[in-house]
Every structure is written in structure tokens, then in C-alpha cells.
Design goal:
Blueprint: H1 2-24, E1 53-55, E2 61-63, E3 72-77, H2 82-98, E4 104-110, H3 114-123, E5 129-133, H4 137-141, E6 149-153, E7 159-164, H5 169-180
Parallel strand pairs: 3-4, 4-5
Antiparallel strand pairs: 1-2, 3-6, 6-7
Helix pairs in contact: 2-5
Length: 182
Amino acid sequence: MNKLVRLTASAASLIAALVILLSAGLPPRSGILVRPGETPIAAEVGAIAPPFDKIDIRNRRLSLSALRGAPVVINFWATWCAPCVSEMPRLQDSYDRYKPAGLRMIGINVNEPVTDVLTWAQHFHITYDLVVDNDGRLSYQYMVRNLPMTLFIGRDGLIRQIVYGEVSDSRLTAELTALLND
């Protein structure tokens, strides 16, 4: 009897989820095609990374389009996110190791006060670029659904890989090696 109740509840939950998905639909694709056959601008593998122009926490202008020609890693994070905290030293170590090869790294903090992010960066000795997405536009543009989220962008501006969740040492090394040898 207990098994039947669990099975019925599971089936009802699945049906409810399908009804919600069908009524609400999937999130819209953020990319656009300028002309048929052109590469889309979207937050997805194989598309051109959506451009942005922001002021970083050190009051310097940061434009993704100005970084074209360099391999770029974008990492969405927050100070309250345990996996983000865990991977941040790994990202900094990789940045230190591959910066001489032209790697650029951008940490995009999701909606926390700039003063908190500055304190955080000083405490953890973060030297790569940090931006605060205080209006949520970048998170929306990049379709951020969970933290951390890391994008690996080639010299041509195309997104090569997206890692959802904490990026491991081996995965980070593999993605950076591919990015730098591209």
C-alpha cells in the first residue's frame, strides 16, 4: 500500500511538472540571428557570447567586445554560494598560471554590494576582473539559472563550453588548455 501511495504521488508530481512546463514554456533563447546563416549571439555553446560594457569593482571600464582576440573565462558567482567560494582559489590560480598566455578572466557577482565584493576580493587576493551585476541584466542575458556558472569563450568570441556548478581542477585545466590552444 505504501509503495502504491509513493508511486501515485510521484506520477502526480510528474504530471504537474509537465503541465507547468507546457503552460509556461521553456525560457526564451536569448540569442538573435541578424541574418539567416549567421552565428547567433546567445548564451549557448557555439554562439557568440552576448556583449556587455560595465564598470568593474576597481572603477575600470570592461567591455567583452574589446577582449576579442583573447581567450576569456566568465564566472557568475556570489559570496553566499558555497561552491563559488570553493572554486574561487582554483580560478585565481588558473588565472595566475595562464595570464601570461593572454587569458582574461571575469568574475560576475550576482547582485551584492560593491563594497562587499571589494572586501571579498581583497580577502581572497582576487586579481582578475570583477563586475557586479546589480541590475540583473547580465544574469538575464546569460540565462543564469544557478551558481556558479562558468563560460569558456574563444578568441573569436564564440562560447566553447559552459560549466554549470563548481568546476573541478581537471575540468578547468582541460577547458583552459583547449581554449588557449584554439
